[in-house]
User: What shape does this take?
Amino acid sequence: MLCFQSTFIGSAAIAGILPVSALQITDKSGVTIQDALKKTSIEVSEEHLQQLRYDPKSVWGYVEIHIEQGPVLEWVGFPLGVVKGIAGQTRLKVTMRGSQGHAGTVPMSMRHDPMATAAEAIVLLESLCNIHSRFTCN
Assistant: This one.
């Protein structure tokens, strides 16, 4: 099964922002997106990517439809699944600010280590996602 650890490939191509370098993303076995497309007789170059771009004025909306493939399907032995809903994804850039302090000269009460704050945020977010998934995944 081909599984490229990347998101929004089709959407980025339609928006005209997919870099040619994305074609070199590989799956676990080393197959690139470009190789996979070649196997289905689709030659993709930078010029082809630009031809895929839609004029924003000609599009009211866009939903990328795909066959769901993933570790759960692989685990249960199903080759593919039918999607009944979509998940919106958001990427955020988060900055944790603080300052390190030398263990020998700065008491714990005076430290403001951003890594400790980041670790707490990661654990909290994972916990919230796990609680939420109990209510939405069947």
Remarks:
- DSSP finds five helices and no strands in the chain.
- The CA atoms of residues 126 and 132 lie 10 Å apart.
- Residues 1-86 form one domain.
- The helical segments are 9-15, 33-39, 46-52, 71-76, 114-136.
